[in-house]
Protein backbone atom coordinates (compact mmCIF):
# COMPACT_ATOMS: atom_id res chain seq x y z
CA UNK A 1 0.00 0.00 0.00
CA UNK A 2 1.31 3.44 -0.91
CA UNK A 3 0.51 6.39 1.34
CA UNK A 4 0.32 9.97 0.23
CA UNK A 5 1.99 12.57 2.41
CA UNK A 6 -1.41 13.54 3.79
CA UNK A 7 -2.34 9.96 4.61
CA UNK A 8 1.02 9.36 6.26
CA UNK A 9 0.64 12.54 8.32
CA UNK A 10 -2.86 11.59 9.41
CA UNK A 11 -1.66 8.13 10.36
CA UNK A 12 1.11 9.58 12.49
CA UNK A 13 -1.28 12.01 14.15
CA UNK A 14 -3.84 9.39 15.07
CA UNK A 15 -1.30 6.81 16.22
CA UNK A 16 1.25 8.78 18.18
CA UNK A 17 -0.39 12.04 19.25
CA UNK A 18 -3.48 10.62 20.89
CA UNK A 19 -3.00 10.86 24.61
CA UNK A 20 -4.91 8.60 26.93
CA UNK A 21 -5.43 9.32 30.59
CA UNK A 22 -5.26 6.79 33.38
CA UNK A 23 -7.62 7.83 36.16
CA UNK A 24 -7.36 6.70 39.77
CA UNK A 25 -10.67 6.73 41.66
CA UNK A 26 -11.10 7.09 45.39
CA UNK A 27 -12.09 4.03 47.37
CA UNK A 28 -12.59 3.21 51.03
CA UNK A 29 -10.62 -0.04 50.92
CA UNK A 30 -6.99 0.93 50.36
CA UNK A 31 -4.70 2.89 52.66
CA UNK A 32 -2.77 5.95 51.51
CA UNK A 33 0.47 4.08 52.03
CA UNK A 34 -0.67 1.19 49.84
CA UNK A 35 -1.89 3.49 47.05
CA UNK A 36 1.39 5.42 47.14
CA UNK A 37 3.38 2.18 47.02
CA UNK A 38 1.38 0.92 44.01
CA UNK A 39 1.70 4.20 42.11
CA UNK A 40 5.45 4.14 42.62
CA UNK A 41 5.74 0.49 41.62
CA UNK A 42 3.38 0.44 38.63
CA UNK A 43 3.69 3.96 37.22
CA UNK A 44 7.23 4.79 38.30
CA UNK A 45 6.15 7.82 40.29
CA UNK A 46 8.52 9.38 42.78
CA UNK A 47 7.24 9.32 46.36
CA UNK A 48 6.20 12.99 46.30
CA UNK A 49 4.25 12.60 43.05
CA UNK A 50 2.54 9.44 44.29
CA UNK A 51 1.57 11.18 47.54
CA UNK A 52 0.10 14.13 45.64
CA UNK A 53 -1.90 11.82 43.35
CA UNK A 54 -3.24 9.89 46.34
CA UNK A 55 -4.25 13.09 48.14
CA UNK A 56 -5.91 14.64 45.09
CA UNK A 57 -7.77 11.40 44.44
CA UNK A 58 -8.97 11.33 48.05
CA UNK A 59 -10.09 14.96 48.03
CA UNK A 60 -11.62 15.16 44.55
CA UNK A 61 -12.76 11.58 44.07
CA UNK A 62 -10.43 10.91 41.15
CA UNK A 63 -7.28 12.15 39.50
CA UNK A 64 -5.22 11.62 36.38
CA UNK A 65 -2.17 9.60 37.37
CA UNK A 66 -0.68 9.03 33.90
CA UNK A 67 -0.96 10.28 30.32
CA UNK A 68 0.29 7.91 27.65
CA UNK A 69 -0.72 6.07 24.49
CA UNK A 70 -3.82 3.86 24.31
CA UNK A 71 -2.08 0.49 24.60
CA UNK A 72 -0.02 1.51 27.61
CA UNK A 73 -3.00 3.22 29.30
CA UNK A 74 -5.05 0.04 28.99
CA UNK A 75 -2.18 -2.08 30.29
CA UNK A 76 -1.48 0.20 33.27
CA UNK A 77 -5.17 0.40 34.15
CA UNK A 78 -5.30 -3.40 34.21
CA UNK A 79 -2.26 -3.62 36.48
CA UNK A 80 -3.68 -1.03 38.88
CA UNK A 81 -6.94 -3.01 39.02
CA UNK A 82 -5.03 -6.24 39.68
CA UNK A 83 -3.44 -4.47 42.64
CA UNK A 84 -6.91 -3.66 43.98
CA UNK A 85 -7.16 0.00 42.98
CA UNK A 86 -10.11 1.55 41.16
CA UNK A 87 -8.78 2.77 37.84
CA UNK A 88 -10.11 3.65 34.40
CA UNK A 89 -8.65 5.07 31.23
CA UNK A 90 -10.00 7.18 28.42
CA UNK A 91 -8.92 9.25 25.47
CA UNK A 92 -7.96 12.78 26.46
CA UNK A 93 -10.45 15.34 25.24
CA UNK A 94 -9.38 17.24 22.15
CA UNK A 95 -9.60 20.50 24.06
CA UNK A 96 -6.76 19.29 26.26
CA UNK A 97 -8.72 19.55 29.49
Annotation keywords:
three-stranded antiparallel β-sheet; 97 residues; 4 helices; 3 strands; single chain; disordered N terminus; alpha+beta; 53% helix
Structure, described:
The protein has four helices and three strands. The chain has a three-stranded antiparallel beta sheet. With 97 residues, the chain is an alpha+beta fold. Helices cover 53% and strands 20% of the residues. The protein is globular, with a radius of gyration of 16 Å.
Which sequence of strands runs across the widest sheet? 2-1-3
Helical content class: 40-55%
Total number of helices: 4
Determine the N-to-C terminus distance.
36 Å
What is the alpha-carbon Rg in Å?
A: 16 Å
Based on secondary structure, the structural category is alpha+beta
Detail the poorly predicted runs.
1-14
List the topology elements.
Blueprint: H1 5-16, E1 20-25, H2 32-43, H3 47-60, E2 62-68, H4 70-82, E3 86-91
Antiparallel strand pairs: 1-2, 1-3
Helix pairs in contact: 2-3
Q: Care to give the gist of this entry?
A:
The protein is of the alpha+beta class and 97 residues long. 53% of the residues lie in helices and 20% in strands.
Amino acid sequence: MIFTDTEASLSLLTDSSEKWRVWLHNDDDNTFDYVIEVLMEVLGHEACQAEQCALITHLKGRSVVKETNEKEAIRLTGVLKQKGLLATCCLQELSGK
